[in-house]
């Protein structure tokens, strides 16, 4: 065969459809006679529901039905990860509400306006109760307990061994309390669901989800029907970023309403509802201590992490566990101890958001490493060099039991420094400082390692050659913008010699695809792509057997020619095209046994589950360059250099796309975004006017590059790239801002690094009293240790890592 | 989100708009570019039962040399103010301020009259027009009147405009070759100002006005007086927050706003050559 297409920059096959507006989202599915569903949501963070009166809404023109928890009759269920049964949530609130935005009543009307009017006409009588907004305050004795069935507001805790000798061999211990603030996911398409009852009694449910098969199983259980009575389809999905996983309560309400009314029902939330209804991300307070020798080598890292699960603990309660698992980061670290305490608060439940626990780990470690560098007077790049795990340790088992598959951590660091012109930047910084220039230059470095395809290690794929010679791929991933139609077609073209534009991708439909893990945790190429790779190989084997039968030769003599035909080696005239082979395979006269059918396929097809040896560990290094206006505190990102290693690169265009998007998210958290509440639990940032989601106008053009260290765990050598940019970018930018101010005495500034926050840090330092980054962690950690606490949840952290 | 149901009337002339206002009274709202009104309606913070659309009154969209001043039709889009040759030559401060409003889409829809009538202290054009001592022309059932900018902004989102009046024209002095400075400090490129400052400098003196430092756009009178008394720009700017009552919100504390006002006024004065 000619050279492989893999590794080439191939433009996305699917873009013309999106660019022409031909994509189909749930809101424009609009089945005939569809009813619009909308929710009456709680305006209180915590309140008792005294009574609900829907009579006025029911009487409005165009209103077809209203449902409360009682009339809907749905049992409590989880979104997907179960922390404790104590926290199971009724899809519509009963008795009490626990966050602003919690659905209380569902209204169904003939159009959006009637639904909106009905929402306004429902009267709910609430008795406000005290809110618990701050996760640290939630642990304090006397704090209002949000779930009466649970003794306190601690929903998850885990302690590592620790004793007083932990830092005995350290010359210096640096300490910081870092806020990894709560952020909103903000997919461009808000959350949405439609349910259409069929004449056959089946229910087709359209979800704006990343994981249709996951939702399938949960929904069948919630509705109390066998799985085959429900079909889940994810049409085009306008972004998920981790937030669209599991069975949101809104989905079960829509499905149940359609079931009860026997009519199609659709729901697409408004942006304001999306900002409080969809899971939030991050939300940790990290107390971290790093022991070092004077030469900068690390002796041990201790962290105590407060997590915030929001009102109904689910996956968000488990993500600090993912942070703990990645807390060794890229470093040779003699000791590690991480304690976790996760709180229930009267806020939107938290969940996965681009990186889901790993960005928090990278930020925590990279901040304390920079703080140590400053303390010891060692250049931030140099202190990293001195502590990186060397190239010869892989596979490497960390203190938390995670096995790093492959790595070469120094390579992206040196490459990023080279691309940035690090030494020249440092020289310019020195010159500006010497000249008293109020435009301070900051240079931030971060190194990271992260985990992709955590969670279940397998994925399903089938490849079928149709009688016209085109291929149909079915896969259990559920792409929504990442470029799967392109990369998966490249794999089939590479293995089978079928042109990319003759490869059709079928995904995101539980009737069409036997099983699937969906798309999350940056796993799609390494699991789904590998499954397609293996299925293509299996198919080729079958085709060679068939060709040998037809050409009356030995299967070992059959080769795949450059033109995509199979024939006898050395005899180009004796060859068959894919269409001929597919027709022959379908011919009832074909003797049994010529085509292997042991995998349950018919015609010319193969299907299998690919199972990876384990998750993989992409890594990289970023350098951020910022300018800080000393007078106002404004931060302007000047450059961002990302060198990410996601193993073997299949298509550099798609990798660069993920890097750019990831870096934008990462800078967004560092500089702009924070979901805020007032003391009573009222959201302050529930619109995009208030929530500072950045746009391209805020950013320089990113400089992205790759190093390639293949993983031995899959045939493509590929690791994930969907979240890496986010993980590397946030600490690089935060470090850059602190670096710009370091000579003034600033040691740490919490995110988001808004102008006023930075100005206050500068002012405090200029007045001779720079803010001390450390304070003692809350008493909960001592109380938990005294009680001898260990992991205490139903689900495992590994399960949560699949998103 | 979905606004409360309303009726829609399209006015084909200023006179018709005024007649419709008289007919529907309090229930009606004029609709120009819709970029302030419609968001309020979608959040159901405003619920007029009739919208009178003046957005297509192209005869009220112009920038004209009116002899001793420049006249700008109330329905002129921000974008047309931004790129007007006449303004760039004769009153560049206004063109520069218009270029800072929101983003491209907003500038192509929003109108100068809508911005003035909405009287948002955080908007860029009201403060700029205040610095320029603009005059606003309003037409109502009893004819036309001219309102000086200094008397126009009466409170938070409140103006001297009567509910039955249509703002038709904005008049600004000609000031070719004068110095100007416009400073806008915001979080993201498309955001409103956390604090802003407009400075115009001519032979007759220096006008300084502040964006988002109180319930209305404000003249920085103390700065103007200090400059008239011979103070340096840096010294005068120290007085920028005198007489202001900035609010504290999500984007800034009152203390930080005061600090920003002093910094931005100095920078705008320097840009204006003061
Ligand atoms: C995303 C976004 C960002 C923005 N950013 C900025 C910014 O950075 N800076 C800034 O200054 N502005 C900003 N704006 C506001 C924008 O400039 C608006 O266009 C402007 O404030 C109002 O003009 P309009 O023509 O859209 O008025 P409309 O919304 O149509 O009307 C506003 C009010 O004025 C009344 N009105 C309108 N015209 C007249 C008239 N001729 N006579 C009497 N009453 C009238 C209406 O009845 C209504 O009460 C932004 C808007 C958006 C949506």
Structure description:
The complex is a heterodimer of chains A (803) and B (274). Helix content of chain A is 29%, strand content 22%. With 803 residues, chain A is α+β, with helices and mostly antiparallel strands. In chain A, β19 (458-465) and β20 (471-475) form a beta hairpin. Chain B has three domains: 7-53, Uridine Diphospho-n-acetylenolpyruvylglucosamine Reductase, domain 2; 58-173, Uridine Diphospho-n-acetylenolpyruvylglucosamine Reductase, domain 3, CATH 3.30.465; 179-272, CO dehydrogenase flavoprotein, C-terminal domain (Enolase-like, domain 1), CATH 3.30.390. Chain B is globular and about 55 Å long. With 274 residues, chain B is an alpha+beta fold. Chain B has twelve helices and 14 strands. In chain B, α5 (92-98) packs antiparallel against α8. Chain B has a five-stranded antiparallel β-sheet. In chain B, strands 11-12-13-14 form a four-stranded antiparallel β-sheet, with helices on both faces. Chain B has a three-stranded parallel β-sheet with strand order 1-3-2, with helices on one face. The N and C termini of chain B lie far apart (47 Å). The A-B interface holds A 112-113, 115-117, 120, 270, 272, 631-632, 634, 672, 676, 684-685, 689-690, 692, 694-695, 697-698, 754-756, 759-760 and B 1-2, 4-5, 43-44, 103, 185, 187-191, 194, 250-253, 256, 259-260, 263. Residues 29-37, 39, 54, 74, 101-102, 106, 110-111, 113-115, 117-118, 123-125, 161, 166-167, 190, 192 of chain B line the site of flavin-adenine dinucleotide (FAD).
